[in-house]
Amino acid sequence: GAGVSQSPSNKVTEKGKDVELRCDPISGHTALYWYRQSLGQGLEFLIYFQGNSAPDKSGLPSDRFSAERTGGSVSTLTIQRTQQEDSAVYLCASSLEGWGTDTQYFGPGTRLTVL
Amino acid sequence: QKEVEQDPGPLSVPEGAIVSLNCTYSNSAFQYFMWYRQYSRKGPELLMYTYSSGNKEDGRFTAQVDKSSKYISLFIRDSQPSDSATYLCAMRNTGGFKTIFGAGTRLFVKA
C-alpha cells in the first residue's frame, strides 16, 4: 500500500515569508508526528496528533510554528515569518496507534531552505 | 546533556568488515529500543527493535541492549556497500508516545 507522502519535496523561501508543508499519512493510522532534522542534530520532535485528542505541541520551537490535522488524516505544518535557522528537513511519520511498541513510518521529508 | 548520545561519525569501513554502532542514554525508563536506517534524501526506516535487555538477531544484523549500562549497540556482519547510510538509534518508554532519537551515525562501506 501507499506509504507516508509529503509535499513539496523541496522548498526554497525568503526570510520572513510563510510556508506550508503537507503530510499524507498511511490510511488508517491514527497517530501522526512531525519532526525536524538538522545536520548532525538527529530528529527533533515537534508535534504529535493522536485521533481526536488535543495535539501535543510541546516540541514546537516558537509560536511561529503551528500544525493542524484535518479529519484525522492530512496534516499541515505552517511556519510563519521564516528565519534562516528554520532551514532543515521536516519529516512526518504516522503509526497505527501512537504508543507502546507501535512502529512509526516516515515520509521522505520536505527540505526547507530559507535564504 | 542529551537524553541519547550517538557519535555522528562518519564511519568508513571496507566491504566485509564487522560494523559496531552504539548509543548511550540517560533515562532508565526507556524500555523499547530501535534502530532506524536512513538513506540519503529518504525518510528513516525501522531496521530492528528490541524490548528491554538482551540480543536480537536478524540476518547480518544484531541488536544488543544493556540496560544496566544504559548502552545499546547494532552490529552489522559482512558489511556491504548497500549498507552505506545513516543509522539512528531511538528509544521510548512504552507507556508514552514520545520517541527520542540519537543524532545518527553516517556509515560508508567501501567496495
Account of the 3D structure:
- The complex is a heterodimer of chains A (115) and B (111).
- The mean pLDDT of chain A is 93.
- Chain A starts with a strand and ends with a strand.
- In chain A, 32% of the residues are buried.
- Chain A is mainly beta and 115 residues long.
- Chain A contains no helices and ten strands.
- In chain A, strand 6 and strand 7 form a beta hairpin.
- By secondary structure, chain B is mainly beta.
- Helices cover 0% and strands 55% of the residues of chain B.
- Chain B is built from no helices and eleven strands.
- In chain B, the strands form two sheets. In chain B, strands 2, 4, 5, 9, 10 and 11 form a six-stranded mixed β-sheet that branches. Chain B has a five-stranded antiparallel β-sheet with strand order 1-3-8-7-6, with no helix packed on it.
- In chain B, strand 7 and strand 8 form a beta hairpin.
- Chains A and B meet through strand 5 and strand 9 of A and strand 5 and strand 10 of B.
